[in-house]
Specification:
The complex is a heterodimer of chains A (136) and B (151). Chain A is mainly alpha-helical and 136 residues long. Chain A contains six helices and no strands. Chain A is globular, with a radius of gyration of 17 Å. The two termini of chain A are 29 Å apart. Chain B has 151 residues and is mainly α. Chain B has two domains: 83 residues, no CATH class; 65 residues. Chain B is 70% helix and 0% strand. The longest helix of chain B has 28 residues. The radius of gyration of chain B is 19 Å and the shape is globular. The chains are: A mainly alpha (136), B mainly alpha (151). Chains A and B meet through helix 1, helix 2, helix 3, helix 4 and helix 5 of A and helix 1, helix 2, helix 3, helix 4 and helix 5 of B.
């Protein structure tokens, strides 16, 4: 049970962040899109970079407030992490979004594209974990 | 400072605050922990459903924000709402989401937590994030070249 309240609280904060970025700046909080946008200079560049700086400073702020760093247990070795990183990077660009853009923002707008994307990445994610369970 | 410059500066502060909230939310929620994320995806094994609450909480507040935005002609600090306009469910969308899901399942990382996790200085996160940026750049450069050749 202890895991549910922080999960809900964290989710509410993430939603608040997305709502804030939309209502103040008119921007979708899609992490993969914001990162890729850094390669293209434009009017939104500075604000997008500021958002990502804030994102990176989030865990240290959490550590300051909570008195401990967030738990991060990484089972995968470097080759698997590198392959996974390539797939996540290429896939989120090809699919126009990730968990934040399609998940948090797209589902909130009831975007049909996002609903399909979320169902697909949940399905292949679950399938991958299941196959790894069988293989091990 | 001109009005436009001032509004860009204010936008950046707003974005910084929103980014901090996002990173704080990820840290609190457990999304930063790849083992938890893989447990959430492990429906055929020891399924840990707690992360459903992250998505549920995030989507509800985000939906409130979106509903509110429909009542305004423009955002508070910018000229226009910058929303995606694509509507077609096409092969790149499905293939991209499928590849992303495989990488997500292999590692337990998606882009937000991977970037936020960089602040911990953990080497495996660096490896993942570097590969992720490479994957993004590979896609974007390949696409740029294809557009060029179509012209």
């Amino acid at each position: 049970m202890d895991a549910y309240l922080p999960a809900l609280g964290g989710g509410l904060l993430i939603g608040l962040s997305a709502a804030m970025l939309l209502l103040l700046n008119g921007r979708i909080a899609g992490i993969s899109g914001l990162v890729a946008g850094l390669a293209r200079p434009g009017a939104r560049w500075r604000a997008d970079a500021a958002f990502l700086i804030g994102l990176v400073l989030g865990p240290p702020l959490f550590a300051l407030l909570a008195g401990h760093w967030p738990v991060m247990r990484i089972a995968a070795g470097w080759p698997v992490l590198a392959l996974a990183g390539l797939l996540v990077g290429f896939g989120t660009r090809l699919g126009s979004g990730c968990t934040s853009g399609h998940g948090v923002c797209g589902l909130a707008r009831l975007s049909p594209r996002s609903i399909v994307a979320v169902l697909v990445f949940l399905a292949t994610g679950m399938l991958t974990v299941a196959l790894m369970r069988v293989a091990s | 400072m001109s009005g436009a410059t001032r509004s860009f500066a204010t936008q950046s502060w707003a974005a910084l605050a929103a980014g901090l909230l996002f990173g704080l939310g990820l840290s609190l929620s457990g999304m930063l922990d790849p083992a938890r994320v893989r447990g959430f995806l492990d429906v055929a094994g020891a399924w840990d459903p707690s992360l459903v609450f992250v998505l549920g909480g995030a989507v509800s507040v985000s939906a409130l924000g979106y509903a509110l935005s429909r009542r305004f002609r423009r955002p508070a600090l910018a000229e226009t709402f910058d929303l995606p306009t694509a509507r077609r469910i096409d092969p790149p969308l499905v293939l991209g989401a499928a590849l992303f899901g495989v990488g997500w399942g292999l590692s337990g990382f998606c882009p937000g937590p991977a970037l936020a996790g960089l602040s911990t200085g953990a080497a495996p996160v660096l490896v993942f994030a570097a590969a992720m940026l490479t994957g993004m750049a590979t896609h974007d450069l390949a696409l740029a070249r294809r557009r060029m050749s179509l012209r």
